[in-house]
Each structure stands twice: as C-alpha cells, then as structure tokens.
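Write out structure tokens for Glycosyltransferase.
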Amino acid sequence: MEEITSKSHVLVLPFPVQGHINPMVQFSKRLVSRGVKVTLVTIDSISKSMPMESCSVKIESIPHDESPPKSIDIFLEWFFVLISNNLKKIVEKLFDSEYPVKVLVFDSVTAWAIDLAHELGIKGAAFFTQSCSLSAIYYHLDPEIRKIILDGSAVSLPSLPLLEKEDLPSFVYEGDSYPSLVRLVFSQNINFKKADWLFFNTFDVLEEVVDWMRTQYPIKTIGPTIPSMYLDKRLKDDKEYGSSLIKPNGETCMKWLDLKEIGSVVYVSFGSLASLGEKQMEELAFGLIMSNSYFLWVVRDTEENKLPNDFMSKVSEKGLIVNWSPQLDVLAHKSVGCFFTHCGWNSTLEALSLGVPMVCMPQWTDQPTNAKFISDVWRTGIRVKAGKDGVITREEVASSIREVMEGEKGVMLKENAIKWKNLAKEAVDEGGSSDKNIEEFLSNL
C-alpha cells in the first residue's frame, strides 16, 4: 500500500501528565513519518523534561511565571486559561503557506479545546488515552443524561461484557469523593458531539465495542501507541517515548535482569500516580517474598516511606527495588515472566504488545475496567481478590503470582498474551487497521 504524504501541519495538545503525553507523542511520530509537520504544544515545566532533540516532533512551549498549582481544581482552570490565551498566537507564529496548520489533536479531557480550534478555523480531533470500552461506559453512564439506574447490580451495556460493580470505573460509584475529576472524565462526552475525529489508543480486534461506537461516531483506532521498535519496527530508532518526568534506573534494572533465568522475574509497578496505603504496601511486600519468585519492584520516592521497616533486609538477592524503571525494556526482557500491575491503560497496552501475562491489582479510575478485560475477555491475566477491609493479603499476592508463574493456567495466559502481541503488531504494521486509519485521516486533511 503506497503511503500518503501530507503537506499539513498538525498541532498536538496533551494534558500535562506522563500517561497522557507519551501516547500522543508516539502518535505524533507516526504522523511525522508520513511527511506531516507536527508541533506539540505544552507548558514550560513539562517541556524541560522532554529531551526530544533527536525526535522529529517540534515543541512549542508556553512560559508561565508561577509553578503549576497543586490543587486539581485550580490547575484545570489555570491550564485552560494558559492555553486559551496562547493558542491563537502559536497558530499565527507557526503560519507556513507550504505546511498550513490544519488540525488540533487535543487530549480528550481538554474537551474545551475543540471550541478554540474551530474559532481559529482549524479542525479538532479528540485523542482518548483510555480504552474505547471505558469511553463507552462514560458515554452511557453520564450523570447528566443517565438512563441506567445504578443500584449495585451488574450493568449490561451494548457490545460490552456484563459489568459487576467492581468492574466499573471508580468514578461511577465514588463520584462524591472526587467531584472535579468526575466532571473532567465525563466532560469527554462533549467530544462525541463536537470533534471532527475521535482517535482511540487501541486497535480494532482488541475491543468489540469499537464496531458499535463506529456506527454512532467518526472514531478511528490508531494504537497501540508504543515505540515502533517494540512492534512493527517501521520507525527508525523509535525505542523510547521521548519524555520521562521521572528518571529511570535503567542500567541497574537491566544488569540485574540479565543475571536471571528466562521467565523467572515478577515485574511490579503501579505507574506514575497510584499510591498504596501503608497496610497494603506491607502485605504486597511480604507477599512478594512469599511468592518465592525474583521480583523487580518500582517504588517511587514518595512511596518509599511506606515500606515495612525490616523489608529491605529480607529482600536480599530475591528482589530489586528501584524508584523508576525503563518499563518497555523491562517488559521486553526475557527474564520477566509476569507483570504485577495497577492496570493503567498504557501499562495494559504495553504488556499486551510485549506478550507478558499479568496479575491485576487495580486501584481506581479506569483500572478496574481494564482488569476485567485482562482477566475475563483477553484472558491474559488474573485479578487479585481483596478482603472485606479492601486490603489484598500477602497470601493472595503470593498465590496469584504462583498461579501465573508456575500453574497450568499460567501456560494458557502466556499463550494468549503472545496471541495479542502478534495482533497488536499486525494493527500498526503496514496495511493493518490502525495504519489504515492514520492514512485515511491524512487523506482527508
């Protein structure tokens, strides 16, 4: 299939957190490889951590005098004002008759950006950094238009598996605890009414609901957006996301993994945001030791003080604790046999794309829904069960790891993980569903 090259200029506006920036940067690289000029719009405090000189995506950084506010409510308003006041200036500054700015690809949670784009006479494409299934759930359960009564019983929605209360995103039932975040996730539904395109970081065969959504809206699956060298290898030197807000202990991790047997290590990470309680941290720590497997555990600086006092002395040669890791390199390493994960969407896609079975310990937002799909639909992992107090015991941690690493079920999970790995590669490879969708988008510019 002959690739279309488009003399267009695309602006990309991610929400300024790591899990939203990375997939949008990867999508940008795919556009650049087809001759599109791409400029990523962000704020100074984020651009400083993006060493993207070697990357073909340009950065337009908005200066700000004060540090970004810590309060989520104030931050959302602050970010909105900063972008609103500067986007027109950026578009005018980047004016190029040969590469005219045609479209703003904006993070779906910044739903207000569609109005800014249209006011400037350019198209707007919403980029969803979550699964299509999750978006369908938010679409059907929007508090503003909800027709479904939520009483704790299982929920049946078009083209989705039957969802028990514990499978639904946490905001559906715990909205009162996080009012501003609830408004933010449900505001994404505005995109269905206004955006010219809806991009999803997923691939067609992964989610049945894609076909249903497509009958309603102009959606395009363009994922998985992980560096090309781990999938189709079509983008030269594309081995990293290009931004890391936390510096990884790469050399330490790799040297340690190199000394371990094939499939003998459990990799444990809860992403850049999730935070465990002290009791849960203790149970997880001693569960890892009880599992009798080697383990590489990412414990961020801010979480270290929750580790049990005597834990480090008991870790010895069985475990390695690091503040951050080069996750793709770790998951791709032959010694890793299992990923103990919070089931964030990026981590889920990475594990699927690299063929690694999972133990799921979801915390909040979309993670319970992702865990449901991992365990019951894609069947590439198992989900730990919490006790009555909501804490997952050390015994449950250890037995879940053993089931994946040593049990018969583990063999089946690994086979399924390899199947999804091949399908993920197929989707982004030449002529695959995601590849075709990007081509179609560019041919319409």
